[in-house]
């Protein structure tokens, strides 16, 4: 079985219920008996050999190359998803601190913390745990991965402040291989445990899964993994992009806002307001205005049409919803029925919708830029339309209650017309099979792997260790439990290392209590799987591998199995020779046992090999299609990574400007030549260095998404350009010019503080009267032009 490439990556420590230490040497036989009792071994071994033939690492045919590309791509998506998760946390943290920094109200230790968040990790610095500790961590994380109940309990015990760091380790490290069946199933097992506990402790039906708890944070984080991102992009991106193209389409239906917009338009057009249209009216007066009603009615129709297209697209995507998300929906339905047997179908569907729409679909509709579905922030009107669509879908998914926003009652026909359709969809989402039997085989197969490992940072390692120690009495009260034994051996957790020293390490995973399996097929032998079964399945697997290695004869029918074996055994390729000789011996044994017959050209095995080759041809097409789809997802994730990095660069530039300015002021106050510190080195600064101007056309800014909206007539845009200069650190001037005119039409003096504060307050637009610019992209441009030139 050396040629097998299993999709598993670690095995389960579940030999004895409760995880108590077992007598040495008994674990493998016990696991084998348990597996035999619960599964049809012949089917399992057959699947195992088919997998071996399908994923042969020594083959170099088109399927093998396509599979390798797909595996590499999935691995890169998993790795990049984790990097983005960490970067998003850093950006959120710095967003929350920047206002204090701007207002100079930050304590010294807080400033140090901000500076550390921006430090690059030095892979050469820092200390590794010694070999003994590494072995102990290898045992501990093997146990945590293969027995998800421990992690599930820990997730319920930690505080909201601690959950994000733990989720990083759980979602992107411990179960970080997001497309690997065994890890995905183990993670879902953990979710089942967490959800069960949530249902047990919740006293009111209405509060189930609604509040911002560690459990709800877990569910949201799970949807942000690769498969969830891929689904959102394939289902929602085109629909959202076609909507936001209509920048001027205003579908506001809140009567108060419609009234305000109406009187503003009248004032702009006529220069005055009639006495019958006072400012600052209450909502009921605005709603009763006949002109407001006339504006709203056609908007309601259009909104319902758009919402129907979104709903239809989502319902039609049923088969592409990631298995894990559907399985969580299934658990919500199952747990609700168990705890509340009298709950109506509509009530249960509202809980399922509370996860699928509230935590997964609607956040992506409301802020598509954060989910990498669009380039840049949508313009004001489309942004509002998307918010209204999300509200409509959420009201439909919940048992609708419009008490908070009376004006949404006007959209009630959408809810009434689609209630049945929505509940059918939410129930159908739950109709997926369980994975327990395949997981048990995967767990068992994992014991035959030699390269089980995870990529983990030192701080993830130490933080998880620390949390386990804090809650050890609850997690593992019995001193004979495996978890307790491992934690006692490890002792106290080391403190967090400085960010600069927080290196990643490849941590191998293995168990102190499980015996590695050398030969899976022999280990799985039982009353239902004989040696003849093993020989037959191995022979079939080898014939498939030989046909894939010799494509020039793969299409000939009927397949001459003895001729194929002879050709391989007498070739010049040592791998083919070994396989040819092996399969000749297997055929001879099978014929002697009466399993196959030379008289009919081994028809039974010949037909199965031919069917397997057809299956592999279909597999290749699926692999190529999946690769194309995931390449787009990977590119989007990388683009988002670049965007997040540019935000961090802006913060770095800002901090550097603060230091430059304060150093300069000190130099000036002392009456000498200003001395500034840049990257740890002192430089003399005699006077301000004016940088720029840098020139950009209107077309360039539009193409790069810097211009969000433009009031410049189309025929004049070719004559418009922008000059950007930086007279002092942290100060920028944008001048808007018309070709042929010496003086600018408009100049705006900007401070980086103001732009960063706008970004922190999620004000995406900078109004230059004639054009509206995208704040994050303007910041990124300033950073690119000036940060490295001072």
UniProtKB/TrEMBL annotation:
One of its GO terms (biological process) is negative regulation of Ras protein signal transduction. Residues 182-398 form the Ras-GAP domain. Keywords: Coiled coil. Residues 1-16 have a biased composition (Polar residues). Pfam families: RasGAP (PF00616), RasGAP_C (PF03836). InterPro entries: RasGAP_C, RasGAP_CS, RasGAP_dom, Rho_GTPase_activation_prot. Residues 17-30 have a biased composition (Low complexity). GO terms for cellular component: cell cortex. Residues 1-33 are annotated as: Disordered. One of its GO terms (molecular function) is GTPase activator activity. Residues 49-124 form a coiled coil. This is Ras-GAP domain-containing protein.
């Amino acid at each position: 079985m050396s040629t097998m490439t299993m999709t598993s990556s670690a095995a389960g420590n579940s030999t004895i219920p409760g995880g108590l230490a077992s007598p040495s040497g008994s674990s493998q036989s016990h696991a084998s008996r348990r597996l035999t009792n619960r599964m049809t071994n012949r089917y399992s071994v057959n699947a195992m050999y088919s997998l071996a033939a399908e994923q042969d690492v020594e083959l170099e045919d088109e399927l093998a190359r396509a599979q390798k590309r797909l595996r590499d791509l999935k691995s890169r998506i998993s790795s990049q998803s984790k990097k983005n998760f960490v970067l998003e946390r850093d950006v959120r943290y710095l967003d929350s601190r920047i206002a204090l920094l701007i207002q100079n109200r930050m304590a010294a230790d807080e400033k140090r913390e901000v500076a550390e968040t921006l430090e690059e990790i030095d892979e050469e610095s820092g200390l590794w745990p010694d070999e003994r500790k590494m072995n102990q961590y290898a045992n501990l994380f093997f146990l945590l991965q293969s027995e998800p109940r421990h992690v599930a309990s820990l997730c319920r015990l930690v505080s909201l402040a601690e959950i994000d760091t733990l989720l990083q380790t759980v979602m992107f490290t411990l179960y970080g291989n997001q497309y690997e069946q065994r890890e995905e199933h183990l993670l879902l097992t953990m979710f089942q445990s967490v959800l069960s506990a949530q249902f047990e402790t919740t006293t009111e039906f209405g509060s189930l899964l609604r509040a911002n708890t560690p459990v709800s944070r877990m569910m949201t984080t799970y949807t942000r993994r690769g498969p969830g991102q891929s689904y959102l992009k394939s289902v929602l991106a085109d629909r959202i992009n076609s909507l936001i193209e209509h920048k001027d389409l205003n579908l506001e239906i809140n009567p108060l806002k419609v009234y305000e917009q109406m009187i503003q338009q009248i004032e702009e057009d006529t220069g005055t307001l009639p006495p019958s249209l006072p400012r600052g009216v209450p909502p009921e007066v605005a709603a009763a205005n006949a002109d407001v009603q006339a504006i709203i009615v056609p908007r309601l129709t259009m909104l319902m049409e758009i919402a129907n297209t979104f709903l239809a697209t989502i319902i039609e995507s049923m088969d592409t919803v990631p298995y894990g998300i559907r399985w969580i929906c299934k658990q919500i339905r199952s747990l609700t029925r168990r705890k509340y047997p009298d709950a109506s179908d509509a009530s249960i569907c509202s809980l399922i919708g509370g996860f699928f729409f509230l935590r997964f679909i609607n956040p992506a509709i409301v802020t598509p830029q954060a989910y990498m579905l669009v380039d840049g922030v949508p313009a004001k009107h489309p942004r509002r339309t998307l918010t209204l669509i999300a509200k409509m879908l959420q009201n439909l998914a919940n048992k609708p209650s419009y008490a908070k926003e009376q004006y949404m009652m006007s959209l009630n026909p959408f809810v009434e017309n689609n209630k049945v359709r929505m509940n059918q969809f939410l129930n159908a989402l739950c109709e997926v099979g369980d994975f327990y039997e395949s997981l048990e085989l995967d767990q068992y197969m994992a014991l035959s792997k030699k390269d089980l490992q995870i990529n983990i940072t030192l701080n993830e390692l130490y933080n998880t260790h620390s949390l386990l120690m804090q809650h050890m009495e609850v997690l593992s009260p019995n001193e004979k439990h495996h978890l307790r034994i491992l934690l006692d051996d490890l002792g106290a957790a080391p403190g967090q290392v400085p960010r600069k020293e927080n290196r990643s390490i490849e941590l191998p995973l293995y168990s102190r209590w499980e015996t590695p399996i050398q030969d899976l097929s022999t280990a799985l032998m039982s009353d239902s799987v004989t040696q003849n079964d093993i020989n037959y399945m191995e022979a079939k697997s080898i014939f498939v591998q030989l046909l894939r290695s010799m494509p020039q004869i793969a299409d000939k029918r009927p397949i001459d199995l003895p001729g194929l074996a002879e050709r391989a055994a007498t070739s010049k390729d040592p791998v083919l020779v070994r396989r040819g000789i092996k399969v000749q011996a297997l055929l001879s044994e099978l014929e002697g046992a009466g399993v196959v017959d030379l008289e009919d050209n081994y028809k039974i095995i010949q037909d199965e090999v031919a069917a397997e080759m057809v299956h592999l041809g279909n597999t290749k097409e699926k692999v190529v299609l999946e690769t194309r789809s995931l390449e787009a997802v990977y590119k989007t994730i990388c683009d988002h990574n670049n965007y997040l990095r540019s935000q961090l660069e802006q913060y770095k530039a800002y901090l550097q400007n603060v230091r430059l300015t304060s150093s300069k002021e000190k130099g000036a106050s002392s009456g000498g030549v200003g001395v500034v510190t840049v990257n740890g080195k002192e430089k003399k600064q005699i006077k301000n260095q004016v940088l720029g101007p840098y020139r950009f056309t209107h077309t360039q800014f539009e193409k790069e998404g810097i211009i969000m909206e433009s009031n410049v007539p189309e025929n004049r845009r070719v004559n418009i350009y922008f000059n950007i200069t930086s007279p002092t650190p942290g100060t920028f001037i944008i001048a808007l010019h018309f070709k042929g005119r010496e003086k600018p039409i408009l100049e705006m003096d900007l401070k980086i503080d103001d732009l960063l504060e706008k970004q922190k307050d999620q004000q995406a637009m900078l109004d230059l009267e004639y054009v509206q610019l995208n704040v994050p992209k303007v910041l990124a441009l300033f950073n690119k032009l000036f940060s490295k030139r001072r």
